[in-house]
Every structure is written in structure tokens, then in C-alpha cells.
């Protein structure tokens, strides 16, 4: 998202000026913005103080940073699962599930999901044959 060349204080003061009777066309000409931009600002910042605008902006920035981090972690998980899937035997995966359960005290469902092994494969008898 592109950063605005106007601060939240400027935007809220412009909105307040329009609420006090200043013509929208005149405001837009002074700032060299379109009326559509003004009305999108009004929709977003209307009725807010500049402090509230700053808080909203900070929260939006934090949300975008967290979304980027979540995308990275998701990609990392997929890459690690690919390594586990292609380079480890089922026996290795079972031992890894047991390790996760004992070390991090998590359940079978979660540990199997992390290692991309089905729970039925995890619980299947290791001998491979039927008795």
C-alpha cells in the first residue's frame, strides 16, 4: 500500500474544515486531490481525532507486518514439511512425532500435522504385517 503524502493530522483537519462549512471542491483544489480521495478519507477518518487516526494507522501497520510474518511462517512450514516428506522414512517420522510429544508436550494430532504424517500411519503397526 502506497504511503500518503498527507499525515493523519492533515487529513482529519481537512475533514473537520469541510464539516464546518468549507466547500469540498475548494479543499480538493488546495490539496491537489480528487473529490474521490477526499470522500475515501472522510469514510476512513471521519469523526476521528488525529490521535485516534494515529492509533488506527499504527494498528494497520502492525496488522500488515503480522500478515507478512504469517505468510513467511506458512512458507517455512511447507518447506520443512517437504524436506520431512522427501528425506525421512515413516519410522523416522514416528520417532519425530514421539520426540515432539515428549519434548513440547503436544498431542498426536498436532505433532502429526507438523510433520505431515497421517495419524493412521503413525498408529499403524510398525511390523507392516497383519497378525
Would you kindly provide a written description of the structure presented here, covering whatever features stand out?
There is one protein chain. The protein has helices at 8-19, 24-31, 35-45, 50-87, 90-104, 108-114, 119-123. It has 131 residues and is mainly α. It folds into two domains: 1-82, no CATH class; 88-131, no CATH class. Helix 1 packs across helix 4 (50-87).
Provide a quick synopsis of the model.
The chain is an all-alpha fold. The chain has helices at residues 8-19, 24-31, 35-45, 50-87, 90-104, 108-114, 119-123.
Span between N and C termini? 62 Å
Number of helices: 7
Order of helices and strands: HHHHHHH
Number of domains: 2
Structural class label: mainly alpha
Contiguous low-pLDDT stretches (5 residues minimum) are: none
Beta strand %: under 5%
Q: Helix coverage percent of residues?
A: over 70%
Please report the total strand number as a whole number: 0
Mean pLDDT: 88
Query: How would you describe the shape?
Result: rod-shaped
Largest sheet: none
Radius of gyration, CA atoms, in whole angstroms: 28 Å
Which structural traits does this protein have?
mainly alpha, 7 helices, 131 residues
Per-chain topology:
Elements: H1 8-19, H2 24-31, H3 35-45, H4 50-87, H5 90-104, H6 108-114, H7 119-123
